[in-house]
Amino acid sequence: MNPIDDNNPILLFDGVCNFCNRWVNFIIRHDKKNKFRFAALQSDRGKKLLEHYNISEKDDTAVLIFKGKSYIKSSMGLHVLYHIGGFYSIPFIFILLPAYIRDFYYEIIARNRYKWWGKKDVCMIPSPEIRNRFL
Hints:
This protein is 39% helix and 13% strand. The protein is an alpha+beta fold. The chain has a 4-stranded mixed sheet, with helices on both faces. The radius of gyration is 14 Å and the shape is globular.
């Protein structure tokens, strides 16, 4: 699959991070149109997409890819909420703030995510009902 041609948003996430896995489960529950696709940063597909978009795995905890563009840090989070739609798209207004202000808070959470929420020994394994949404 060529990621640039994909019309579905793709979320690359830290597959061993409990917070990241909760975020993915939140998206799955609220993405009523089943638009989102997912891949762990640690997976072969995740690594290939990171390489394709010239993003270091160490640079981020999650990456959103949509229509040939990649979004990281707070921009990623706001775009995810925007794509979920409805009430969840309201915080997208914060995209008007400079990224360095938004990213300050994102980086605090990212830096402490294992300490605050823990981590798994292995990446999440999707259930059969949602397996087709994982790359």
